[in-house]
Each structure stands twice: as structure tokens, then as C-alpha cells.
Amino acid sequence: MSDLPDPSAVRVALWRALHVEADPPPHVLDDTLGLALAAPSDDFRQCRDMDLRATMRARASIVARARFTEDLVAERAAHGVRQYVLLGAGLDTFAQRNPALASTLRVFEVDAPASQAWKQRRLIELGLPPPEWLRFVPVDFEVTSAWESLVAAGFDRTVPAIVAALGVTMYLTEEAVVAMFRPLAGLAPGSTVVLTFAPPLELLEPEEWPARKATEAGARAGGTPWRSTFTPQQLTALVQTAGFRAVTHVSARALTERYFEGRADGLRPSSGEEILLVAP
Ligand SMILES: C[S@@+](CC[C@H](N)C(=O)[O-])C[C@H]1O[C@@H](n2cnc3c(N)ncnc32)[C@H](O)[C@@H]1O
């Protein structure tokens, strides 16, 4: 199989870079390394899904979810948590951008085998070979559970972990989402799971309906179709059935208040992707 990046992972990495390049400071997240990894053609900014105005709120969601998660990692690490798992890591660059924090953890990046092979090759080409504390774990969530592979890669189920699945559930069938989360309920006490989900169209602000339809059409055309949407209540019920007890819904409005308050440019996250914070 040829090693090629997942198009959805490249798209969000480029949005993170465009946030730094095109949105006025303060920046919610400072991540341009994904652009270097993806190395798109010079005219990538002219592509329809890079249109700064049309993708403004999606771009804000992508930087908000990453910032929220990295703040959580810092907070949990300060309380002694030493394992961080990124399910569907894509072109996430936390390990390269924040070595001071990342090196205090064991970081596991789980992703589809072909995308991950491509990323490892690109990191080496950029002179960024993976440090000892970063482990790559190739898994197709539709085929196998990530958990045996994680344990084989050194994940310790008996101590707390932070697990993030950002921008992943919408690409999976409901069965694969359940299969991914059921073993997570057995994480050690003190663990935290942060995941994002796409609410169904009718829950979005109506002004965002065209952007959502375009995103779904683009994902289909790119060969990575969306497979599931959830209301916060549906996903809460699903993770509770999987065995989680504490569930907190972090809405787009809450992310706006936390990271975008007082901006003159009107940048704020889309209502099309929200966060669920869960603990076993
Ligand atoms: C939109 S990207 C998000 C990447 C990253 N979490 C971020 O926020 O930049 C979705 C990721 O999910 C991964 N993914 C989707 N379906 C998968 C599957 N069946 N098995 C493993 N990974 C999958 C893709 O390879 C991709 O890296």
C-alpha cells in the first residue's frame, strides 16, 4: 500500500497553519509545522476548502479543539499523568512543538497505517526523527481495536492516561466508535478522554448549513466520507453504555468564551463540531 496522508488530516493541519498566517493575533494555537509536513503546492491557498472567509469557523474549531486538549494535557501532567494517547493523530505536532511537556510523557500516536508511515517519513525528511518517548501505533479502527496494539507499544493500563480523539468519530461507523470506546472505560482512575463529534445538521446554526454540506461533500469526494453524527445526548448515552461515568459536554459556545472572547475579527468556532470530556 502506498503511504499517503489522509486528506482530512492534511486539511485540518493546513487550517492550523492558516490560523497563524492569516488570522490576527492572539493565536489560539501556534502550529505551522503541519504545513511543512504536508508541503502542498504553492497555490494551495486558492483551493476552495482553504478559502479564508468560508472556512473561518471550521478553522477556529480546529485550533480550539487542539488548544483545549493541549491545555488539558498540561493540567493533567501537572497532576502526575504520564501517558498521552492520540487516536487518529493525523498531522498533530504536539510532540514536536512542545518537547518540554511531551518529553515528560509517553506519547502514543495511533493512526491508519498508510497515513502514519507517510508522516514518519516526512518527519525524518524534515530532520525531526521521533524521540524515544514518542511511539507510533498503526491501527485501522474499522478492523481492529487499538488497545492490544497500544499495550504492545508500551501503554500501561494500570496508570492514568489522557486519551484524545479529535476529528475522528465522524469518519467511523457507530460500531467502530463503540468498539473504540468500550475498552477505554477500563482505563485507570484519574484518566481523561477528550473526543470531538459532529452534531447532526439540524442542530447547527442555520448559517452554517452550507459549510457543513460542503464539508461532507468534500470528505466524500476525497475518499474519506463522514459516517456518523451524534447529538450530545446520543454520544453521552453511548459512552455511558460503554462504561464511562463522568461525561461533560463542552459546546462551541463554551470554547468561544474560553478562547475567542473579545476578538475584533469575529473568529469563533463552528457549531458543527463539539467536545465530550469523559472519565471512567
Ligand atoms: C480529520 S483527521 C484528524 C487528525 C488529528 N486528530 C487532528 O486533529 O489534526 C482524522 C484522522 O482520523 C484517522 N482515521 C480515520 N478513520 C480511521 C480508521 N478507520 N482507522 C485509523 N485512523 C482513522 C485519519 O487517518 C486521520 O488522521
Written account of the structure:
This protein is an alpha/beta fold. Helix content is 40%, strand content 13%. The protein has helices at residues 7-22, 33-38, 56-78, 94-97, 99-102, 113-125, 146-152, 174-181, 209-221, 232-241, 252-259, and strands spanning 83-87, 106-111, 134-138, 162-165, 192-197, 246-250, 274-279. The longest helix has 23 residues, at 56-78. The protein starts with 6 loop residues before the first helix and ends with a strand. The mean pLDDT is 95. Residues 6, 8-9, 12-13, 88-92, 111-112, 115, 139-142, 166-168, 171-172 line the site of S-adenosylmethionine.
Which strands sit side by side, in order, in the main sheet? 3-2-1-4-5-7-6
What name does the CATH topology carry? Rossmann fold
CATH superfamily: Vaccinia Virus protein VP39
What is the CATH architecture term? 3-Layer(aba) Sandwich
Q: Let me know the number of strands.
A: 7
Bound molecules: S-adenosylmethionine
**How would you classify the helix and strand content by structural class?**
alpha/beta
Give the strand content.
Answer: 5-15%
Number of domains: 1
**Rough outline:** globular
Can you summarize the main beta sheet?
Answer: 7 strands, mixed
Give the C-alpha Rg: 18 Å
Mean pLDDT: 95
Parts with pLDDT < 50 across at least 5 consecutive residues: none
User: What's the number of helices?
Assistant: 11
Order of helices and strands: HHHEHHEHEHEHEHHEHE
CATH class: Alpha Beta
